């Protein structure tokens, strides 16, 4: 797949550093990528404006906040017409327990990443919200045991 943005080696270095530490100061970022601070800041702004950098957020420790259950749900719909797919995607935005959602190919139509305070809360969500949602045919769940890797979402080789 072709890269949709015109990025040079410095841009890739900036992206790698920001993905590893979004709170890095511009001065430290510029030092790490080998350019002075003003052009570094201009590059970051250009990457933001181009939509390459979508935003910044803190990575929270969910168990420390009382959210100890992480699970994935694979959802199969009865009908996969565009309107039904869009309706289910819209519905996921109203479920706080769903932290990320993907439309997928294969045996399922959606994959949901869920975080809940406890097993009972997750089970209630699955039974009361998910399986009773319109057009939902199948729900398969996978409770996580422990996270073994947590990297930025994009592999950067530069």
Secondary-structure blueprint:
Blueprint: H1 9-20, H2 26-33, H3 37-49, E1 69-77, H4 82-92, E2 98-103, E3 110-116, H5 119-130, E4 136-143
Antiparallel strand pairs: 1-3, 1-4, 2-3
Overall pLDDT confidence: 94
What is the string of SSEs from the N terminus onward?
HHHEHEEHE
- Please estimate the helix content: 25-40%
Which percent range describes the beta-strand content?
A: 15-25%
| Morphology | elongated
The largest β sheet comes out as: 4 strands, antiparallel
The rounded Rg comes to 20 Å
Instruction: Kindly state the number of beta strands.
Output: 4
* Annotation field: number of helices: 5
Tell me the span between the first and last alpha carbons.
17 Å
Query: Strand sequence of the main sheet, in spatial order?
Result: 2-3-1-4
Unreliable segments of 5+ consecutive residues? none
Query: What structural class results from the helix and strand content?
Result: alpha+beta
Question: How does this structure look, described?
Answer:
The chain is of the alpha+beta class and 158 residues long. It is 35% helix and 19% strand. The chain has five helices and four strands; from the N terminus they run αααβαββαβ. The protein has helices at residues 9-20, 26-33, 37-49, 82-92, 119-130, and strands at residues 69-77, 98-103, 110-116, 136-143. It has a four-stranded antiparallel beta sheet with strand order 2-3-1-4. A hairpin with a 6-residue loop joins strand 2 (98-103) and strand 3 (110-116). Helix 1 crosses helix 2 and helix 2 (26-33) packs across helix 3 (37-49). It is elongated, with a radius of gyration of 20 Å. The model has no long low-confidence stretch (mean pLDDT 94).
């Amino acid at each position: 797949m072709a890269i949709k943005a015109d990025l040079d080696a410095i841009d890739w270095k900036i992206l790698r550093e920001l993905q590893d530490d979004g709170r890095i100061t511009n001065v430290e970022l510029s030092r790490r990528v080998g350019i002075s601070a003003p052009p570094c800041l201009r590059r970051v702004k250009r990457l933001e404006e181009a939509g390459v950098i979508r935003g910044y957020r803190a990575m929270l420790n969910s168990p420390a906040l009382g959210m100890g259950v992480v699970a994935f749900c694979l959802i199969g719909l009865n009908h996969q017409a565009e309107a039904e797919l869009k309706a289910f995607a819209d519905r996921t935005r109203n479920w706080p327990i769903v932290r990320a959602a993907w439309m997928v190919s294969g045996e399922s139509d959606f994959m949901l990443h869920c975080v809940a305070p406890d097993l009972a809360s997750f089970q209630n969500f699955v039974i009361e919200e998910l399986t009773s949602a319109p057009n939902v045919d199948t729900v398969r769940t996978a409770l996580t045991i422990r996270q073994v890797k947590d990297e930025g979402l994009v592999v950067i080789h530069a």
